[in-house]
Specification:
alpha/beta, five-stranded mixed sheet, 17% strand
Length: 368
């Protein structure tokens, strides 16, 4: 994207202040909790440059790299005597706030909160250091009311929150159909109804919405209630890949403890490798972690299709993050940001190269 224009319009400032603009892809609220699983550290294990690394992530399938990596001890193995302390979050702004305050050092997060956190801090706090997941977003509709894409016009379609990643994606898709919707009110040729993912299935069952553009596992929960997948967002992207989860780090932590950052990235790369080599075991591990965190595992009818739609990978798919930011600008929810410097993929590429894997690209948005 081109160089920044300052976020000076009243509309943009109001949106940022009132919304929390550009929320996470799959957030359900604003609370954070202890990750609930403290890894065992061998007595003779050698510590890195810090005693403890604090990581944050969501209790969600799109953050399964973190869920599985902690559950299986794959991060701790790379960290040696440095303890990993996990915390879970339910919304992007609370995780960004925790990163800004130093409550966490490294986090798994969606593209929109990463963009928002970077621009609001004028590029001075976070960096994206890796990808983690792609996909896992679908338009699910009531098949009795909507039989084709053209039938979406005039219907009520839910998204998780105004300005969140799926909200922007739906608004962009609507625009590409030649239809008009006021982004802030959600009124127009399609009624965009901002609905918390926790209550979207109930809203669907009650008939108050006709469908939803939502992440997993909400999409599969709607299918379990009789909904039909009308569109998989992956089909709208080149190679059917788009970023849904990134790994971010505090810039000062990256500077002061590069060995720890590299260890966490090694853990992430090895976890993704293990997930892709052992999909059924990894799915069970992720579900066990979700059960420990929430008290309830996902039923097979939900987790099985949801898991299949998510791709776990190290590539941050930087060009798609840039496109998502452009979609938000096009929708009128964001003044064009300067994202130059949002990525620092040097540590990841070092890890990938040492592991004999291909290096990844920052699409021209890396540190200078």
């Amino acid at each position: 994207m081109s160089a920044a224009r300052p976020l000076t319009t009243l509309r943009t400032l109001a949106a940022i202040a009132a919304l929390p603009l550009l929320l996470t892809a799959c957030g359900y609220g604003a609370d954070s909790t202890d990750g609930g699983k403290q890894a065992e550290v061998a007595a003779d294990a050698k510590k890195l440059s810090v005693d403890e690394v604090k990581i944050g992530y969501f209790p969600n399938l799109t953050h399964a790299t973190a869920l599985v990596g902690v559950q299986e001890g794959l991060f701790q193995k790379e960290l040696g005597g440095t303890t990993i302390k996990p915390s879970t979050f339910n919304a992007g702004p609370s995780e960004i706030e925790a990163l800004n305050s130093g409550s966490i050092d490294i986090g798994w997060i969606g593209p929109s909160p990463a963009i928002n956190g970077y621009t609001k801090a004028a590029g001075k706090n976070l960096r994206i250091i890796s990808g983690s997941a792609s996909g896992g977003v679908k338009l699910v509709v009531n098949p009795e009311k909507i039989k084709s894409l053209k039938d979406v016009k005039g219907k009520k379609i839910a998204t998780p929150q105004l300005g969140n990643t799926q909200d922007v994606a739906l608004l962009n898709w609507i625009s590409e159909q030649g239809w008009k919707v006021d982004a802030e009110s959600g009124k127009g040729d399609v009624s965009v109804v901002r609905t918390d993912n926790k209550i979207t299935p109930d809203a669907y069952k009650s008939g108050s919405i006709d469908g939803a553009w939502v992440p997993e596992p909400t999409a599969s929960k709607l299918v379990a209630e009789g909904g039909k997948v009308l569109l998989d967002e992956a089909d709208l992207w080149p190679d059917k890949k788009f970023v849904i989860t990134n790994i971010i780090v505090r810039q000062d932590f990256l500077k002061e403890h590069p060995d720890v950052v590299e260890a966490v990235l090694r853990g992430s790369v090895k976890t993704n490798e293990w997930i892709n080599a052992n999909p059924d075991k990894a799915k069970a591990s992720a579900n066990k972690a979700l059960e420990e965190l929430s008290g309830k595992a996902l039923p097979a009818e939900v987790i099985d299709p949801a898991w299949k739609s998510i791709t776990f990978l190290d590539d941050p798919l930087a060009a798609t993050l840039d496109s998502e930011a452009e979609h938000a600008v096009k929708a009128g929810l964001l003044e064009e940001p300067d994202l130059k410097g949002i990525y620092d993929l040097t540590p990841l590429n070092k890890v990938l190269k040492a592991d004999g894997k291909d290096e990844v690209d920052d699409a021209g948005l890396g540190v200078k």
